[in-house]
Design a protein that fits this description.
Shape: globular
Helix content: over 70%
Radius of gyration: 18 Å
Structural class: mainly alpha
Largest sheet: none
Number of helices: 10
């Protein structure tokens, strides 16, 4: 299936008034995770633009350190994904605790970057955009279009860059499994 770039959402939809933002239910982790995944898929192009702006500013101020930092994070991410696909115990941990998995990747990257060079580039150029995305995705309430797009991505009708990353983190399999269960029940 061909990878499609998600459309840029209107900025009024991306960052409206406070009525479309709410604190997530910290007691229901699966619901919070579903909100984050759904928003990451729906607003992925907006997140990419915000992240590119932050990375560009930091990259302009310190290009070599930004290049080293980005390379380290990508290599660490790919290494952790590869290991988790080849080791069942790590795969289960990644699926049960996706946030912890991302935190381990970020901490590993932090230590490697601190060994290689400038930690502040890592903090502002790499971690800040990820933190901004996570905060927005956690607080932004979903709408009908958001839920529909998430379902289309989950059942494989379309494939986007964020969907590929979430698949690597195994955050979309539950949606596919739920849909398959529903279809099998309907057939019976």
């Amino acid at each position: 299936m061909e990878v499609q770039v998600a459309p840029l959402r209107a900025w009024e939809d991306f960052f409206p008034g406070s009525d479309r933002f709410a604190r997530p239910d910290f007691k229901d982790i699966s619901k919070w995770n579903n909100r984050v995944v759904s928003n990451l898929l729906y607003y992925q192009t907006n997140y990419l633009i915000v992240a590119a702006a932050v990375v560009s500013i930091v990259g302009f101020l310190s290009p070599l350190n930004m290049l080293i930092g980005g390379t380290v994070v990508v290599l660490v991410f790919m290494g952790f994904v590869w290991v988790s696909h080849n080791k069942d115990i790590l795969r289960r941990l990644k699926k049960q605790y996706p946030t912890a998995f991302v935190v381990v990747i970020m901490l590993s990257s932090y230590f490697l970057i601190s060994y290689l060079g400038d930690v502040m580039v890592f903090m502002f150029g790499i971690t800040l955009p990820l933190l901004l995305m996570f905060i927005h995705a956690s607080l932004r309430l979903r709408n009908i279009k958001n839920k529909l797009e998430n379902k289309m991505e989950g059942i494989g009708l379309k494939k986007t860059p964020m969907g590929i990353i979430l698949d690597a983190l195994e955050q979309q399999e539950d949606s596919i499994n739920k849909l398959a269960d529903y279809i099998s029940k309907v057939k019976e």
